[in-house]
């Protein structure tokens, strides 16, 4: 005879409570209907997986898989139930499984709605920026739109966290709280409340709030990205005392003058921009060449105004890092909103979605995070909460990538990729002491990276041929900064040799007393063979390799 528990469960599942007590067979049949409906909820949740970002898609996919298995186990218990007591127990479990399945389906659907709401917010933010640039709206109107879009991203972030928090649990999925604010966002009137604990990014996504200790503050009286007044002055002192170095200095100034005289269409400029910034920057910072400064300013604005191709591409982050560097060196202004909405906004969504573009142990993550940190320091000076939130995400997310390259100095991705990330990592490391009195995240030393550069090449200084090895020599940028920090004369000697072959602004600024270039370490062959053995994947195409 059915108990009140089983009948209540059946009634709650929209199964009519019988006028007379149901038999075990009748109860079993009704519960099987509930089980079937729960299974259909999982089936109906599957199409949403393809519409979600990787992390959220995997969360839904795993919940479907585990929930389906749990539902099958409950079905097996239902078949085996031979007493009313057993039937009551399995009825309770099936009720929970039905709730769990309904939550997976509803939460998955609502996560896709949040994706659409993000797109709507980005459209409003970019249009407001475009209207401001074209003088179609006032600064006050733009500021109101910026505040609404920023707050709306916090609503979306909070909703996302809630939906992800209930998936896989036997609790009902709550309705979205952000949808009622969509009309306010699109109509452009009235405030949208910000959700505490989140920092909104117009054109992007909200990030968790961070301590003010993460707020990067660059010097106001000179450069802070990659170099400083002190480094530049020290280089000038060395040049005046060393005729050979002074000759190279003059050569680099002539190169900057020639670079400043060239004009390029946008497509050509994109391809040449990263090394061009370093040459022009040397002309301005070490030679006071105003033509170089003017070009730094104008080209950075042109690159930023054109916008990124796509923020999950390495070329865009290379451009962002270079444009941020140029903006800092030239001490130019006026591109803060463009950088925020069109460049940093989309980058924050990579963090919000847990994309491995920013959190994996790869050179891709190293480049993205270095660019994001430097851009936050340069363009978010008037938004310290945003600067802190993005800086924390960047410095935290880059740790796996740094761990890969600092564990033994090399990388399983191969020497080509070791070099490909060298500018981003070295600029990040050389900027951090200018942005913080105390760096809020421990950064691993580059000492072993220098050891790899000095000891893993053949007698002709060519990279060991594994993974993506190419004839090009290893970049001296990371060892140069390491030599400057640790005052290592052996590494400085290796860097000085590279500098003689190809002068570079950073190598000049980061110069340190050089000793005698030591012979290769006896462990170099062992390290080389170890690196070769751990790399078994096919090389990737290096688009825009420097």
Strand order of the largest sheet: 1-2
CATH superfamily of the largest domain: Chondroitin AC/alginate lyase
What is the overall pLDDT average? 91
User: Can you tell me the number of structural domains?
Assistant: 2
Euclidean distance between termini CA atoms: 78 Å
Poorly predicted parts = 13-19, 524-546
Label the CATH architecture of the largest domain.
Alpha/alpha barrel
CATH topology label of the largest domain: Glycosyltransferase
3D structure, described in words:
The protein has a two-stranded antiparallel sheet. It is built from 23 helices and 2 strands. It folds into 2 domains: 4-193, no CATH class; 226-534, Glycosyltransferase (Alpha/alpha barrel), CATH 1.50.10.100. The model is unreliable at 13-19 and 524-546 (pLDDT under 50). With 546 residues, the chain is mainly alpha-helical. Helix 2 (24-49) packs antiparallel against helix 3, helix 4 runs antiparallel to helix 12 and helix 19 (447-455) crosses helix 20. A hairpin with a 7-residue loop joins strand 1 (198-199) and strand 2 (207-208).
Can you give keywords for this protein?
two-stranded antiparallel ribbon, disordered C terminus, 2 domains, mainly alpha, 2 strands, 23 helices, 546 residues
Task: Give the helices and strands, then pairings.
Blueprint: H1 4-12, H2 24-49, H3 54-80, H4 84-133, H5 139-166, H6 182-187, E1 198-199, E2 207-208, H7 229-241, H8 243-260, H9 266-285, H10 290-306, H11 314-330, H12 336-352, H13 356-359, H14 363-379, H15 384-397, H16 399-406, H17 415-420, H18 422-435, H19 447-455, H20 477-486, H21 489-501, H22 505-509, H23 524-534
Antiparallel strand pairs: 1-2
């Amino acid at each position: 005879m059915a108990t009140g528990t089983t009948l209540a469960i059946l009634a709650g599942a929209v199964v009519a409570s019988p006028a007379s007590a149901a038999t075990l067979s009748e109860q079993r049949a009704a519960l099987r209907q509930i089980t079937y409906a729960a299974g259909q909820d999982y089936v109906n949740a599957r199409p949403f997986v393809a519409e979600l970002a990787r992390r959220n898609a995997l969360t839904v996919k795993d919940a479907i898989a585990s929930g389906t298995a749990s539902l099958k186990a409950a079905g097996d218990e239902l078949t085996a139930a031979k007493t009313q007591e057993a039937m009551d127990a399995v009825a309770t479990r099936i009720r929970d499984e039905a709730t769990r399945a309904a939550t997976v389906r509803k939460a998955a659907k609502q996560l896709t709605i949040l994706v659409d709401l993000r797109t709507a917010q980005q459209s409003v933010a970019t249009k407001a920026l475009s209207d401001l640039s074209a003088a179609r709206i006032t600064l006050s109107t733009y500021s109101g739109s910026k505040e609404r879009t920023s707050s709306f991203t916090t609503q979306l972030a909070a909703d996302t966290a809630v939906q992800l928090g209930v998936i896989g649990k036997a609790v009902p999925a709550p309705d979205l709280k952000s949808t009622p604010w969509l009309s306010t966002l699109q109509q452009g009137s009235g405030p949208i409340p910000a959700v505490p604990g989140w920092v909104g990014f117009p054109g992007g996504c909200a990030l968790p709030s961070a301590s003010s200790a993460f707020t990067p503050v660059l010097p106001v009286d000179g450069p802070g990205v990659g170099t400083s007044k002190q480094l530049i002055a020290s280089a000038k002192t060395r040049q005046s005392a060393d005729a050979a170095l002074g000759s190279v200095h003059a050569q680099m100034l002539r190169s900057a003058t020639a670079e400043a005289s060239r004009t390029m269409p946008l497509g050509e400029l994109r391809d040449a921009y990263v090394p061009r910034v370093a040459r022009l920057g040397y002309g301005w910072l070490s030679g006071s060449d105003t033509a170089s400064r003017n070009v730094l300013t104008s080209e950075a604005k042109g690159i930023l105004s054109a916008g990124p191709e796509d923020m999950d591409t390495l070329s865009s982050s290379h451009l962002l890092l270079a444009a941020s560097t140029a903006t800092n060196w030239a001490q130019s202004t006026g591109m803060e909103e463009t950088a925020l909405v069109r460049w940093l906004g989309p980058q924050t969504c990579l963090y919000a979605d847990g994309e491995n573009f920013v959190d994996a142990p790869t050179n891709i993550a190293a480049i993205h995070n270095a660019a994001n940190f430097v851009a936050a320091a340069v363009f978010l000076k008037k938004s310290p909460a945003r600067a802190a939130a993005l800086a924390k995400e960047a410095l935290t997310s880059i740790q796996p990538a740094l761990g890969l390259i600092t564990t033994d100095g090399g990388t399983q991705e191969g020497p080509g990729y070791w070099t490909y990330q060298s500018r981003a990592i070295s600029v990040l490391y050389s900027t951090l002491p200018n942005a913080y009195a105390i760096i809020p995240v421990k950064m691993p030393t580059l000492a072993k990276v220098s050891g790899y550069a000095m000891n893993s090449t053949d007698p002709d200084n060519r990279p060991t041929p594994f993974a993506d090895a190419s004839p090009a020599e290893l970049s001296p940028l990371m060892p140069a900064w390491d030599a400057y920090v640790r005052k290592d004369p052996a590494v400085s000697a290796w860097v000085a040799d590279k500098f003689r072959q190809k002068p570079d602004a950073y190598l000049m600024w980061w110069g340190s007393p050089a000793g005698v270039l030591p012979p290769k370490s006896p462990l170099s062959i062992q390290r080389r063979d170890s690196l070769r053995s751990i790399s078994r994947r096919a090389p990737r195409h290096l688009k825009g390799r420097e």
